[in-house]
Amino acid sequence: MMDNAKRIAIIGAGPAGLATAIYLKRAGHNVVVFDQFETVKPVGSGLLIQPTGLTVLNDLGIAHKLVALGQRIDRLHGVSAGTGRPVLAVDYDKTGKRFGVAVHRAALFGVLHEAASYDGVEIRTSVTVSAVSQDQYGAYLVKNGELDRGETWDLVVDTSGALSEIRTSIFPDQKRRSLQYGAFWATLDWTNPDNKSGGFREDALQQCYYKASVMIGILPIGRQRVGGKKKVAFFWSLKPEDVDVVKTKGLEAWKDDVRSYWPEVEPYLEQIKSFEDLTFAKYGHLTVKQPYHGRCVFVGDSAHSTSPQLGQGANMALLDARALAFALSRNDDFAEALKNYAVSRRLHLKLFQSLSLLLTPFYQSDSHLIPLLRDVLMSSVAKVPPMPSLLSHMVCGTLVDPYSKIGLQECDLTKILDTQITLSDGVAAK
Ligand SMILES: Cc1cc2nc3c(=O)[nH]c(=O)nc-3n(C[C@H](O)[C@H](O)[C@H](O)COP(=O)(O)OP(=O)(O)OC[C@H]3O[C@@H](n4cnc5c(N)ncnc54)[C@H](O)[C@@H]3O)c2cc1C
Predict the structure, then answer these.
(1) Minimum CA distance residue for ligand 1 atom 12
(2) pTM
(3) Over the stretch 116-130, which tens digit does the pLDDT of each residue have?
């Protein structure tokens, strides 16, 4: 153990928590992760890991494991319901050097959890941490409703996600704004019966819109585990207040509604047997003004959450984890290190949080005008250079450089693909 090893509590075993734990454990600190679940587990369906997130996972030495499970995505494609007219067409990179990898949350969780366990990170489950108390000696956790003064922490990293109670207790005035639309999500088996006549592409996120009030999506996400079935994430936009209305009308009425916009999704609708197969996710938006307070620092969704429209949340959480580890490695003074962490992420976060807020109504809102503008812009201006490149950088998470301030360079994604072949063969052979 290094001389200046610190006792660090990490609250939450999501992507931000596990990535932070791996980095800080490898840096020689005493790290304990707390999670509310009895058994740590991921909640939800699919995620798109962008070149930014892949670069962090590659830095941790585990990107190839995720790529082996997930589905390479080269393009985002959206059509207008009824006309079939393309209204979203973004290529990651025509040369094939940059791409996203869509994964089931369980796959990302599994890869991070395996690495954390291998590195000896201690994970304590069934502990809900709702607040952090601090004095001149250190920080203490409020665990399952009781302040525990028996353990003193040099640093608490709050990675408990968008609904963080710790954040709310420290910054009660900074409130998460609920977004108008959420979505039903389901993980279904990948099926492509109509491949010959142009059915769903495996290398694309495909969406169908009617104005901005209807958005249906299909995202192939590969396998949850080696040897498992290939899956897709299916989603359907919905306002929280309409969930009960839809359920009261019944499953068949809802399916009729979906197929009236996009009949091609029938093979997926057939797999949905009850509303229990659909999980409703609410979306909200918040960026904390300063992601630290004394010995407590906020990483991932607890510091910034938004609608998943741009597919950046988990990627930003991974970048944050690297940024915090980098800042701590360069400064023994916590106050200074946490300030540097915040500064290193500020511009990138500000840009993507603003873009998400600005663009979400183009895809999820009751407006008639905004989607009209979207359709006109996407079929005209979006095709004129430099727009394709800008759109690609937006999707990749690289409209501004997220790397240099946190001591990273974008990795060669094609090399991860090469590693994948060896690994998946090895794992499959076991
Ligand atoms: C439907 C949907 C689709 C999305 N799609 C994408 C996408 O395509 N690409 C992308 O990059 N991002 C996407 N996101 C966003 C992404 O899921 C989040 O940004 C990411 O999960 C944030 O990771 P995190 O570790 O900060 O928080 P979380 O993943 O929320 O993890 C928080 C952890 O903390 C634990 N916890 C919570 N409260 C407590 C407590 N009080 N005490 C102890 N433990 C606690 C939880 O059990 C959980 O394990 C999507 C989000 C949603 C809802």
Answers:
(1) 313
(2) 0.96
(3) 999 999 999 999 999
